[in-house]
Amino acid sequence: MASDCIFCRIASGAIPASLVYQDEHVVAFPDVHPQAPTHVLVVPRKHIGSLAELDDADLAGKLLLAVAEVARRGGVAERGFRTIINTGAEGGQTVPHLHFHLLAGRKFAEGSLGE
Ligand code: AMP
Q1: Which residues of 29-68 are buried (b: 16+ CB within 10 A; e: fewer)?
Q2: Pocket of ligand 1 contains residue 31 by CB under 6 Å
Q3: What is the span of the domain harbouring residue 29?
Q4: What is the model's pLDDT at position 75?
Q5: Total structural domains in the chain?
Q6: Statement: residue 47 has pLDDT above 80
Q7: Is 38 in the pocket of ligand 1 (CB under 6 A)?
């Protein structure tokens, strides 16, 4: 855990958050500035700075399965959702702890990869 990392502090319980999913390796909680009716962040408990630093295939699979489980629990799996991972400065990442955005509850442009 990085003591100065906000997502490490949420994952450890040092900062209270309403977790919508948790297991041994992964936690998920609502984004504080939601961009859609459902906007959840899925993060590893272990501090990994970004996708560019991820080298654990087992954890990668666990994270992806957690995203799907959060979508099912949130009731958005059937209608559909968007999953985004911003990486590094040019990728638009602002919190340096790997996280998946799960967005749902509104229509996203087909085929859009954003700005
Ligand atoms: P990114 O720009 O991909 O790094 O996304 C970081 C996200 O974290 C943004 O959507 C923020 O709104 C969100 N965020 C920052 N601090 C918190 C927090 N304490 N709790 C929940 N979401 C947060």
Answers
A1: beeeeeebebbbbbbbbebbbbbeebeeeebeebbeebbe
A2: yes
A3: 6-104
A4: 97
A5: 1
A6: yes
A7: no
